[in-house]
Design a protein that fits this description.
Elements (H helix, E strand, L loop, with lengths): L1 H26 L33 H18 L11 H12 L3 H33 L1 H16 L6 H8 L3 H25 L3 H9 L4 H12 L1 H25 L6 H10 L3 H29 L6
Length: 304
């Protein structure tokens, strides 16, 4: 009995030391694994590596084109490859653009063109989208008018200016109507083909589940046609802007970027002319970007 008690007494300190070692290891995690408790007999976990945040050259790529244009333009003027009378320096053009848009007369013409473009686009969208969806949902109906759509879509809208002059006269409605006519054909074409080319698997799945023709139309075809419809809307607003600028140039107008460009050209006010051209280009670019952003937000499932 004395020998057994002696053995127990000698084992107790060893066990206590072992528990103390485990407690110490738990209280002080191994180096290289912060925030985690190291288990006895297990190797320490490696820290998660985070990719370094680096400024990639890809972010600067969109600036290369404008900077290259600025440099080439400036060199052409400074080397007098083109007479400064016909082509001002890019710096002088940008100064004229900034002054004109900061409350100058250019701002009024800019807003006039924006107003006409948006009015023409709204008219084209209200007519083109529903009509395109309806025609696309009945392929036979679309095929019956396909020639007319393609014919007038391929006809330069500027060639129809005399016709619209006879109908609407020299008024703002003339410019808006011809721009709406050009845009509505683009929107109608894309909306119709969006419905016609809807994914057949989804249409068949809806039919198998017992959906009616009206349910297939409103729950499948309309949603499937949204992506090409937005493509048509984006192309339509660009077309409306082009026709509005052309109409302001050649149809009697006392405002608008087109009118300003042609008037500045006739009196060789080249700074104002190029500033107005840049303003028209910036307007078209901004409208395109706005529709791209809107398309990504609305048709976020595109391609899935």
């Amino acid at each position: 009995m004395d020998a057994i008690n002696a053995n127990r007494a000698s084992a107790a300190p060893a066990g206590g030391a072992g528990h103390a070692a485990v407690a110490t290891a738990a209280a002080h995690p191994a180096a290289g694994s912060p925030g985690k408790t190291a288990r006895a007999g297990m190797p320490a976990a490696a820290p998660a590596s985070r990719p370094p945040r680096t400024w990639t050259a890809a972010r600067l790529l969109p600036l290369i084109g404008p900077l290259a244009l600025y440099v080439v333009w400036d060199l052409v003027v400074r080397l007098q490859l083109v007479s400064p009378v016909l082509l001002p320096t890019p710096g002088a053009t940008l100064v004229a653009l900034a002054k004109g848009m900061a409350g100058g007369p250019l701002l009024g013409d800019f807003l006039a063109s924006v107003s006409r473009t948006l009015q023409a686009f709204v008219i084209a969208g209200v007519i083109g989208v529903p009509l395109g969806v309806l025609l696309g949902s009945n392929e036979k109906a679309y095929r019956s008018v396909e020639f007319l759509v393609d014919f007038f879509r391929s006809t330069p809208s500027s060639a129809l200016i005399p016709l619209f002059l006879m109908i609407f006269g020299v008024t703002d409605m003339n410019k808006i109507a011809i721009a709406a006519f050009a845009a509505v054909l683009v929107i109608l074409f894309n909306s119709a083909y969006g419905v016609i080319n809807a994914r057949k698997q989804r249409v068949m799945a809806a039919r198998v589940m017992g959906a009616s023709r009206w349910q297939i139309f409103k729950d499948v075809l309309i949603w499937e046609s949204l992506q090409p419809t937005f493509v048509g809307l984006r192309s339509g607003v660009s077309m409306a802007l082009v026709i509005v600028i052309v109409a302001e140039m050649f149809i009697g107008s006392d405002s608008g970027l087109g009118n300003r460009i042609i008037n500045a050209q006739q009196v060789l006010n080249v700074r104002d002319m190029y500033a107005s051209i840049l303003a028209a280009g910036a307007l078209g670019y901004v409208l395109n970007i706005l529709f791209l952003v809107l398309e990504k937000r609305v048709v976020h499932w595109s391609g899935r």
